[in-house]
Each structure stands twice: as C-alpha cells, then as structure tokens.
Amino acid sequence: MRPALIQAVVFAAAALGVAPPVLAQERIPSHCIALAAGEATVQPAALNDGLEDGSVLIRYIDHASFAIVTHDGTVAVTDYTGYIGTQDVVPDVVTMNNAHSTHWTAAPDPRIPHVLQGWATGSAADHRLDLGTMLVRNVPTDTRGPFGEGARANGNSIFIFEAGGLCIGHLGHLHQIPSDAQYAAIGRLDVVMVPVDGGYTLRLGDMAGVVRRLRSSVVIPMHWFSRASLDAFLTEMSAEFTVVETGGAQLALSLDDLPSAPTIMVLEPAYLD
C-alpha cells in the first residue's frame, strides 16, 4: 500500500472512531512472546524420580564420593568433600574419612542434618543413624598417617547403608585387612564400593582378597587415579567376577535384580550438574 493511501486510511479511520487496520494488527497479542515471557529455567529431576519402593540409586560423583538414594528421596553422600555438583542437593547425611583431604571437609554445608566423621576423636567413631528408609552404621579400621607414617588406631570407618533390603558398604580409605571381628561387624554386603588405587590404600592383591572375602553381588570400583589402576584391578578379578562397563554414572538396584553371579560394575564419575 502506497504511503499516501496509508495516511488517508489512518485519518479516515480516526474520524470514524475505528482503529486503523495497521494499528489493530499491532494490538494482536503475540503467542510467541507470551510463550517466551519470563526467565527460562530448567528444573533438574529429583534423584529419586522413577525410583520404585525397594530400589536404591547409587550415583558415582567423584573419587570416593557416592550418592545413595532411597525411593522416598533420602540421600546419603559418602566421603563428602563439600562439593557434589551445581544442583542444590542437600543430603540427609554425609560420611567422611580424613586420611586425605579428598575425603572430607572441615566446613560441610550447614543445612546437612547429619555429618558423620569416620575417624577417632578420643575414642573410635560409633554411628548408628536411623533415617527411616535408611540405616547408616560404621565399622572402624586403622589407617596410616596422611603421609604414610605410623598407624592411627580407628582412623577410618567402613560405612554401611541399609536401605531397600540391601546392605551397601563403602570401604572408605582402607589401609588394613579387616580382622575376623571386623568382618563379623560388617556383616553381609550386597554391594560394596572398593578403592582400587593399589597404593594409597591397600595393595591391589590385598584389596582383591578383601573383595573375595566379602562375597558381594555387586562390586563398584572407586578411588582410581588412572585407567591403568582400574584396569589392573579388573584384570586381577576378571576370572572370578563378571565385569560390566556401564558407561554411566549411576545404577538402580534392588534385592530382586541383583546379578546371579558376582559382578563388578564400573561407573564413570559425574557431578550432580
């Protein structure tokens, strides 16, 4: 439409008290703008989304840190260092061992209701925490000093998480082969997280012996500083255990779907982002 004609239409419409066509078009609400209005946000899924009653989610976060999650959203984090990712997840309980700084923090998130230290402070750590759908307890073990010096009595804790009928053990920074009394206190472990570095913790052959003695259905390697140390552990155990490279950071388990043969499940660590 020519400019002169547009101007005439506008004046004529104004004289008649009718909105000119061009202006009327400008007043049509934009569905696109309406849809885009407001700040775009992404709401991360809760860790227990889709988790059935009787199932437990195990998420490898980093190094020796795992999230253990029950169907009702109860969350435990092992060897908590203060950072688990950018998601604002506040665990119900965190456990820590202080053989090295990569296994604990002196300043945990103050919103966490229960912070369980695994090392002795005058006497051996003694925890038995009932969270309803999860029971957390510990078995103390001895460690070397942070630089390999002399023994520290009760310097580490093996933490056991009982949830969904499963017994899940985290060996922590294990420096000693457990005694018969300690094995008895640990009890059955359906799932066990095992440090496989072969140096900072137990030597590879000794750690393999601990794994054999525990006879867990699922073994999850952790605390591997390189693929070489992980592969050395897998080679050591492959004649007796099925090895599954999951390619992911987490798995959900229940008593009903534990593997029929002892299985090493390799998880790839990933923060909660």
Characterise this structure:
With 273 residues, the protein is an alpha/beta fold. The protein folds into 2 domains: 3-36; 55-266, Ribonuclease Z/Hydroxyacylglutathione hydrolase-like (Metallo-beta-lactamase, Chain A), CATH 3.60.15.10. The chain has 6 helices and 14 strands. The strands form 2 sheets. Strands 6-7-8-9-10-11-14-12 form an 8-stranded mixed sheet. Strands 5-4-3-2-1-13 form a 6-stranded mixed sheet, with no helix packed on it. It is globular and about 45 Å long.
Explain briefly what this protein structure is.
20% of the residues lie in helices and 29% in strands. By secondary structure, it is α/β, with parallel strands linked by helices. The strands form two sheets. It has an eight-stranded mixed β-sheet with strand order 6-7-8-9-10-11-14-12. A six-stranded mixed β-sheet has the order 5-4-3-2-1-13, with no helix packed on it.
Architecture blueprint of SSEs:
Blueprint: H1 3-16, H2 21-26, H3 31-36, E1 55-62, E2 65-70, E3 75-77, E4 93-96, E5 114-117, E6 128-130, E7 134-144, E8 151-163, E9 166-170, H4 180-186, E10 191-195, H5 204-214, E11 218-222, H6 227-237, E12 242-245, E13 250-254, E14 263-266
Parallel strand pairs: 3-4, 4-5, 9-10, 10-11, 11-14, 12-14
Antiparallel strand pairs: 1-2, 1-13, 2-3, 6-7, 7-8, 8-9
In what order do the strands lie side by side in the largest sheet? 6-7-8-9-10-11-14-12
The quaternary organization reads as single chain
Topology pattern, helix = H, strand = E: HHHEEEEEEEEEHEHEHEEE
CATH topology of the largest domain: Metallo-beta-lactamase, Chain A
In round numbers, the mean pLDDT is 88
Structural class, by secondary structure, is alpha/beta
Q: Into how many domains do the coordinates divide? A: 2
Which CATH class of the largest domain is shown?
Alpha Beta
The unreliable regions are: 30-38
Q: Approximately how much beta-strand content do the residues carry?
A: 25-35%
Shape summary: globular
* Amino-to-carboxy terminus distance: 55 Å
Largest sheet: 8 strands, mixed
The fourth-level CATH homologous superfamily of the largest domain is: Ribonuclease Z/Hydroxyacylglutathione hydrolase-like
Helix percent reads: 10-25%
Please give the number of β-strands: 14
* CATH architecture field of the largest domain: 4-Layer Sandwich
Question: What's the total helix number?
Answer: 6
Radius of gyration: 28 Å
